[in-house]
Amino acid sequence: MLGRWRTMTLCDIPEQSDTSTGIQSLDLPEGVPPLRSLYLYLTASCNLRCRHCWIAPEFSSRPVPLKAINPKALQDAVIEAKTIGLAHVKLTGGEPMLHPQFKEIVDMLTGEGLSMNLETNGTMITREIAHYLREKTNVKFVSISIDSSVPDEHDAFRGVRGAFDAALSGLDNLVEAGYTTCQVIMSVHRGNRDHMEDLARLATDHKAASVKFNPVGSIGRGSAMRERGETLDFREHIDLFNWVNKELRPKVPIQVLMFLPQALTPLNEFWRMNGRLFDCGISTTLGILGTGEIALCGVGQVIRELVYGRLGENSIRDIWFTHPTILKLRRDLKDVYRYPGICGSCIHAKSCRTSCVANNYVYSGKLVFPQWLCNEADREGVFPKTRLRDIGSEHRKSG
């Protein structure tokens, strides 16, 4: 099973936000971390038909009330979650702006003092919406998905004609409204990797602050792409990262991002990012799906055993304090000396914590398991020996 899967991060790295609520002031049982972030998958529907989507939402060109989070139930959960540390929300979907009460929800979250990021396909960001977000809300950062500098290729990948022009217009509207932090995200596969430099230049021309390359994963609709041989394998993935790091980045003036597990990341990238590399963040995060279900993260939409409860029926506090899957994950992540496979020998274990646990589950059926790139590197005998610790020495110190 292991060698078949080719996955990468299912979610984006949270941008820096104000999550400074004092832990000492929170009502937390001993050993329970604060719940800092909610990933809100506002809708279970989308106005595009993206070939790679790991959530695979229902297609709809109009808001679908029954496929969207209930605002009142969400507000009750947010108020409760603030007592255990909530400070940040990521708005995503489906397409989050397809929610029929999108503004009402954003206004509520702003009123509750929460900072927000928005992940969108960009097609619904009018000039009016852009100014509203910039001037009246706590949405600090917006990322827009664009997968090619060639309009027809982007539209074909996203499944709707005109998607490219609408997304680019959305980006322009955000920049015109005063956003200086917009990011373009490209879902990379074998069919578009030759367009990455052109996409980076397009993002630069339209005044995005950064471009991020996310290789397509093998979950949801991405699994069909893998079966057709369209996704990147281990060697292609590493080679692409090295090309981005060494060749593309010096050519464009904006920030260029692509991430590897910490153990496979070159030292120069550590220095460039000031040590801020991928951390799944799942120890302080919950997902709320467009169906109203509370889950590990968005992966709950396709892996049902990672759903914990439902808004309006289950308490966020009770789930965070007592759900057996969460408790086991905390225990397993804490005991770095018992991490399976190559993770048990890696010097980055305490900070990496096996990278994205949702990806790990897709790959292996276990939340705590070596990230697939690390596992493949170990299988091929190319895992960096300089990233391995002296296990015997570590156990002597801990004893």
Q: Please, could you describe this protein's structure?
A:
There is one protein chain. This protein is of the alpha/beta class and 399 residues long. Helices cover 35% and strands 13% of the residues. The protein is built from 15 helices and 12 strands. The strands form 2 sheets. Strands 9-8-7-6-5-4-1-10-11-12 form a 10-stranded mixed beta sheet, with helices on one face. It has a two-stranded parallel ribbon with strand order 2-3. The chain starts with 36 loop residues before the first strand and ends with a helix.
Structural class: alpha/beta
Report the CATH architecture of the domain at 2-6 and 32-295. Alpha-Beta Barrel
The unreliable regions are 1-10, 13-22, 392-399
The strands making up the biggest β-sheet line up spatially as 9-8-7-6-5-4-1-10-11-12
Give me the count of strands.
12
Largest beta-sheet details: 10 strands, mixed
Order of helices and strands: EEEHEHEHEHHEHEHHEHEEEHHHHHH
Structural shape: globular
What is the strand content?
A: 5-15%
CATH homologous superfamily annotation of the domain at 2-6 and 32-295: Aldolase class I
Which fold name is given in CATH as the topology of the domain at 2-6 and 32-295? TIM Barrel
Quick description:
The chain is of the alpha/beta class and 399 residues long.
Topology:
Elements lengths: L36 E5 L3 E2 L11 E2 L11 H12 L5 E5 L9 H10 L3 E6 L6 H10 L2 E7 L5 H8 L4 H15 L5 E6 L7 H10 L4 E6 L6 H6 L6 H15 L6 E3 L9 H6 L12 E4 L4 E3 L11 E4 L5 H7 L1 H11 L14 H4 L4 H8 L7 H8 L11 H8 L1
Parallel strand pairs: 1-4, 1-10, 2-3, 4-5, 5-6, 6-7, 7-8, 8-9
Antiparallel strand pairs: 10-11, 11-12
